[in-house]
Every structure is written in C-alpha cells, then in structure tokens.
C-alpha cells in the first residue's frame, strides 16, 4: 500500500464513494457475527440457489469497481500514449490486491501447502485487471458484446458441457463443471476449507464475475458522458436496472440465481439492483445535493480495501489468540462475546450486536483517519 494522501480528490463522484462505503460496511457486518449458529436470515447467504441481501454485497462491490475504473482512467485513456502506463499501474494494483488476498488466507497459519488460492480479494484482483484492460483497449460496443458473450457462454458451459467422471452436466455443488475444474487446477489442498471439493470464488465462476465488472464499466461510461443531461442519465439507469433485474429473474427459470456459481441470471439480477441503488445515490447525493448523512459511509468508502483487509486480519487474530478464562483456554473473541454480549441479549440478537459493535468500532477508527486526511490507497 502507498503512503497516505493529503486530501480527497475534489472531482470524485461522491455517490460512488457512499455506495462503496455502504457495501463495505455490509461486508464487515455479514462477515463478523458473534455466533455463526445464530444469524438473521437476511444476513446469511442463500444455502445454494436463491439470493439474500447478503448475496448482493460482493457483486455490488465488483460493479462499483467497474464504475471506478472509468473515473480513474478515462481522461488518460483518451491519449494512446498513456495506455502503457495505465496497464502497468493496473498490473501493479492487481498483484497487490491478489497478494493481500493470499496473505489473508495464510495469516496465522503460514502453511503454503494448504493455503486457499481463490478468495474474495483474489477475484477482485482478476476482475479489476481484465476490466481495466478492456476499458483501456476497447469501446462501449465491444464491452457490451463481450458481456453478452460471457453470460451466454457461461450458461452453455455450465449446462451442456459434460463433467469428467460425472458425464451429466449439472449445477450441484461438488459435481458441476466449475467444481471439477477447481479440483483439477488447484487440488483440494488449495480450495475453500469448508468444502475442499469446490470453491465459491472458483476459477470458472470468475468469468461471469467479469461480467459484473463490465456492467460497472458501461454504467460509469454513461455517467461520464458530457453530452447527456442528468435527467436522461437517471432515466437510462432506472430503465436498465429494472430491465436487467427482470431478465435475471426470468433467466432464473432455466439457470437459477446462485452466488456460489455466479450464474448468468445472478449477474443480471444483482447487476440490475446495483444500478438501481447507484442511480438512487447519484440522484440524491450528486444531483439533489443531499450530503449531510453521507460521512459515515464516506469514511468507509474512502478506505475500503484497507478496512476490509485489516478487519479481516483482526477477526482472525481474535479467533486464534487464546486467553485464560477460569482455568480453561478460550479465544479472545469468544471471551469478549460471552462476557459482554451473550448474557444481555437473546442468542440471535447477541450475535447481531457483536457484528454491529465491530462495524461501529471500525467506523470510529476510520472517522479519525478521515478527519486527519489519511486515505490508504493501493
């Protein structure tokens, strides 16, 4: 990570920072319950097919990243002489994000023989690189065509390509073509430790995740158009959002909405909802100028990767570090949870209270960083 910058860039799209902050807050909330056995249904992932609010968090972040690429690169992209330097910067950022993902996987374990290679940050890194290269080297028409090709191609692969050793194409967790490819390329030692036979951020499902990033590129390009007024932009966003979400629900009848498989219907449904949320933020904050409520989300949004990484490392540390509790060893997180949360709430509310306290603690830290103009960039 680079050193802190002295100020926030004055030409930033405030609504995008707010949307990013809201998304990262949701990430931390759903990733840190006090008790994994007691979680409100909207704060859990769908068991397999289906979609909960929690299942929207990751695609929202990839969508936001696509919009951000446009804002970060469009001016320099106009001059082909800048393309090489833009590509180098994209490669550098990709390696850093991917490396941080591997570091989070191995932290306090330090066993490279069993480190999980796929992961949230690793997928973000790959999608960022591919979308950056496409934005630098192609235009809107090519990007839109590639989006359609990716979604249709993934549908064909998942539903019609025979699975070695199984033969019949299927969408079950352990026997779909994506799970087979993960085991073939990464072996079970380097996959999600809760399954070992498949990975929710696997190799093949990263292909449609690129489609989510492409939706962000196309949205960002629309917002940046100088020849289009705000009313037209909002109407276009609302129309696109509703149509994509509806198409996702329709495609769900043949290709179920599924986050772990990142199905094409899931890309359209979650992408449509992301566009609608972004349109609401853009209209409310950047067009109408309602900004008094935005600071809690800004402090998260302007240090998004930093807080995601550090909070994840902290959570793992609290679960690994042991303390003496009445003669027996227990983790720091368990000790704190059982001492300050479990006795005062019902099990499910105690679990939620712990997660909210985690979000609030980081809000305070990030608020101080914001006030001191400390923004950790990659």
From TrEMBL:
Residues 15-136 form the DUF5009 domain. The chain crosses the membrane at residues 12-30, 56-73, 94-113, 119-136, 143-161, 202-223, 235-254, 266-285, 297-315, 351-370. GO terms for molecular function: acyltransferase activity. It holds the Pfam family DUF5009. The keyword Membrane applies. PANTHER family: LD22376P. This is Acyltransferase.
């Amino acid at each position: 990570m680079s050193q802190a910058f002295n100020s926030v860039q004055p030409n930033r799209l405030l609504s995008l920072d707010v949307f990013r902050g809201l998304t990262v807050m949701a990430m931390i909330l759903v990733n840190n319950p006090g008790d994994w056995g007691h979680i409100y249904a909207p704060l859990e992932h769908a068991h397999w097919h289906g979609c909960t609010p929690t299942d929207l968090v990751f695609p929202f972040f990839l969508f936001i990243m696509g919009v951000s690429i446009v804002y970060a690169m469009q001016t320099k992209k106009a001059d082909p002489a800048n393309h090489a330097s833009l590509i180098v910067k994209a490669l550098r950022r990709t390696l850093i994000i991917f490396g941080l993902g591997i570091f989070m996987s191995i932290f306090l374990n330090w066993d490279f023989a069993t480190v999980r290679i796929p992961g949230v940050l690793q997928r973000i890194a790959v999608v960022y690189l591919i979308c950056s290269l496409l934005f630098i080297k192609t235009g809107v028409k090519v990007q839109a065509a590639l989006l359609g090709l990716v979604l249709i191609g993934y549908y064909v692969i998942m539903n019609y390509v025979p699975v070695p050793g199984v033969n019949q194409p299927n969408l079950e967790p352990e026997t779909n073509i994506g799970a087979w490819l993960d085991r073939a390329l990464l072996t079970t030692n380097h996959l999600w430790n809760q399954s070992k036979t498949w990975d929710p951020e696997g190799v093949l499902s990263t292909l449609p995740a690129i489609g989510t990033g492409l939706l962000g590129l196309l949205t960002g390009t629309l917002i940046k158009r100088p020849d289009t007024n705000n009313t037209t932009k909002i109407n276009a966003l609302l129309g696109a959002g509703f149509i994509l979400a509806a198409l996702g629900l329709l495609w769900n009848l043949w290709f179920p909405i599924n986050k772990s498989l990142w199905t094409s219907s899931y890309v359209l449904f979650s992408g449509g909802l992301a566009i609608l949320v972004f349109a609401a933020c853009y209209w409310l904050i950047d067009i109408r100028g309602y900004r008094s409520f935005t600071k809690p989300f800004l402090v998260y949004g302007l240090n998004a990767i930093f807080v995601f990484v550090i909070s994840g490392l902290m959570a793992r540390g609290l679960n690994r570090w042991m303390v003496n509790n009445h003669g027996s060893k227990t983790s720091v997180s368990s000790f704190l949870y059982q001492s300050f949360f479990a006795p005062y709430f019902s099990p499910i509310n105690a679990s939620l209270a712990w997660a909210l306290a985690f979000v609030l603690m980081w809000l305070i830290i990030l608020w101080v960083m914001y006030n001191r103009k400390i923004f950790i960039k990659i």
